[in-house]
Amino acid sequence: MAMSYLTESEAPRDFRVSSTESDGHYTKCVLCYTVKRNFYCAECVRNGNFVHSSMPYSDRFSEKQMKLMRIKLNRQHVLERCEKLLAPKLKKDILLTETKQSRDKLDLLRLAIEQRRSIINSKKMELADLVAYNSELRIKLPRYQKRVLSLGRHVQLQRMELQNKVTMYNEQTQSLAALRRNRIRQLDRYIFPIYISYDSSDSIEDMEFVGSDAEEEPPRRPQLHIVSPWIDIDADYSHIQAWETQNKETPVSAEPTSNPAHRSSAALGLAAQLVALLAWTLDVRLPHAIALRYTAHRY
Questions:
Q1: N- to C-terminal Cα distance for the chain?
Q2: 229: buried, middle or exposed (CB in 10 Å: 19+, 13-18, 0-12)?
Q3: SS3 for 220?
Q4: Domains of the chain: which residue ranges?
């Protein structure tokens, strides 16, 4: 190949290229002035007639490509032979695996069958026990029927007896209530007679008249008598307090009717006796007073 030499101010037009390895020395590039190996033309590159630029490999690219193709063909051939040689072994392994799986399935089926058989046997035993128990009950059934009939008659008798007792209880309750009413009437009539009277002891001077011709009766104060003593129903005890203040220094009279405080206390005492007798007659418990004691503690 031709190479032209130019001045320093002109760019080179031709490069020295080589397609052989005879020129293995390094040359300086005319364009960049750096040391490079031999340059290859486009035809050599297309044909693969070049070697590695930096590493010391003597094989050309075309030779390496041919080696690669031969290696691929050999590899494919080896793979095909291996597949042919390993095909029986693979079939054998597949058959062994399927056989093992089938054996496992058979073992599971045997276990399931044994469990079902054991369950069926237990159910048969339970059925036999139930049949025997039912046969015993059938044998005992006539005796239980007799017992049921006797118990039914006994229940009817007890029910009738209970009804008679309830009727007797109601009759006795009514008779007891009538007896209590009779005793209460006797207490009210003969022992503790209770009646109401009206006291008109107020003077006419204390009355107020409406109009000149109007005439009114003096107001009557109701009094509740228990035997002889009485108490005022209107709960006005101011006259008792007034009498006590007026007669502080006077001696106590022998007649209780002259002292309103004694008269009221006697009436209340008789009322308490009457209430106690009524409670005993009616079988009622009266409330009792509870004495509460308070003790002072020293701290």
A1: 136
A2: buried
A3: coil
A4: 1-58, 193-202+219-244+256-281
